[in-house]
Structure formats: structure tokens, C-alpha cells
Amino acid sequence: xxxxxxxxxxxxxxxxxxxxxxxxxxxxxxxxxxxxxxxxxxxxxxxxxxxxxxxxxxxxxxxxxxxxxxxxxxxxxxxxxxxxxxxxxxxxxxxxxxxxxxxxxxxxxxxxxxxxxxxxxxxxxxxxxxxxxxxxxxxxxxxxxxxxxxxxxxxxxxxxxxxxxxxxxxxxxxxxxxxxxxxxxxxxxxxxxxxxxxxxxxxxxxxxxxxxxxxxxxxxxxxxxxxxxxxxxxxxxxxxxxxxxxxxxxxxxxxxxxxxxxxxxxxxxxxxxxxxxxxxxxxxxxxxxxxxxxxxxxxxxxxxxxxxxxxxxxxx
Length: 316
Description:
The chain is an all-beta fold.
């Protein structure tokens, strides 16, 4: 069963229980030329015109940190609906004239902003003046401004966890030296690759990876149509496959959130109008407890979102 339309604001509280005894959520998402916040009752609370993105974050004050044209990192004032800070990776930091795309950005606790630059193949941290205060080089066999990286996160301890989409590999880089300290090639599980973006495609183009509290890594496998949990010893100890959820077909599995209660929220991009854009599951039982069915609003290429009412900060 598919639950009500979800929610999207930036300061959080749970509305009453719904569906399977859980609450519907607010959600922030981009799609169909708009960035929007949808309430748990399905109402659009806020929106502004905005092009495709691969990453976004609601900041503590309610502003949104995201990308513009996959090259410029921006902070949007949600009240005024205007950009109040930006860093252009296409022209700054020695990148002028070079192919560069930005697919991951992260606000850091010290006020810096982490930016993963595909093409130049590096992670930079910039301060609010636009100065690069730290950088590490990424290990990339065949640089490609569109496919070098997808989501990147600075994790506890200061290392970087990087999804290399083009290579189908997740690498952990030492936060200071840039040395690769852990690497995991996403498996194809015996299947042949198939081109495309929808449910018919297949590959291992990892989109997101999160380091769990116990040390394992949760990976959204992109066109692998699922999610896997991998131990530091590279053993797959949990797996969600394309048809494991009744009534749901997974396509390009994108962003992940681990909610404070332990449930997973999974992004389901390019899955068509008959499948939800977001699914919340209880990982042990793989029971669906909530879905977000706003294809009418966001279309078929909504790759990133944030649940805004989960209580304490989710892991994302």
C-alpha cells in the first residue's frame, strides 16, 4: 500500500500517525524545473524554479545548500528565494577553461563547505570567502567530468567516503593525505550490464554511501536497483534488491537517509509514474512504512531529497 503525499519544510516536527502507524513526512525535493517543499498532507508549502541537482541540504537556519547547473554551489535564502552565497567551481580554484561538474556538496560543522569536483578529480573545502582551505586528490583512472563522482560525504574522523559512479567503486580517502584507506567495487551479482536509466537498466554505478555507526557502509547501487550493507571486511550482510518490496519496482536508487529511529529512506529515480519517488523501510523486515508518490509534481528525474521532520538529524 502506498501512503499519502509527503512533506518538505525545514524545521521539524512530526504530524500525527498515518498509514502503518508511522507519520507521513515533509520532504524537500527537486524535479521538473522546481525546488519544492511538500507538506505531509500533500500541499506544496514552498517552491521556486530550479534546474537539476544531485545533492542538497537544509541548513540550521532554514536556507538550502545545493548546486546550480552542476557546477556552482549556492546557498538559497528560502524567505527571499534568492542566492545569498555561491562558489563557482567552473571558474574558481584554478578550474577556468577545464571541464568540471559538481555532484556533491556538504556543509561542515566549522562553517566550511565541502565540494567534490568531477573533472579536476578532487575534494575541496572552502570557507565563506571562497578560499580553498583544504583539498585532496581523488584516485580516478579515466577522468570524466560527468561520472567521476556522485555523492561524497566527510564522515566521523575526518575521512571522505566517495561514490565513483563511472568506476562502480566506493572509496574512503584519508582526510589529510588523500590516501585510499578502504575500497569496495560494487558487485554485479552475476548479472550482465544493460544500458538505460529505468528499471530495465543494470549496472553498479553507485550513487550514495553512508558509514553506519557499527562501521559498515550502506551503499545505494544506482542502476544496480538496490541497497547493500557491506562490512569493513567487504562482506555483504544485508541487501535490498529490485523486487523485494511488494508493489514497488526499484530503478536508479539514489540518495539514502538513515532516520533517527533506524529506518531507511531510499530515493527511487527514473522509476516511472507507477512507482514511488521515496520509500521508507524498516531494514530488518524490509517492511514499507511510508512512500512519497509525487511523480505528478517532480517527474521521472528527481534524484535527491531530504526528509525534514525526522527529529534529530538523520544520517544522509
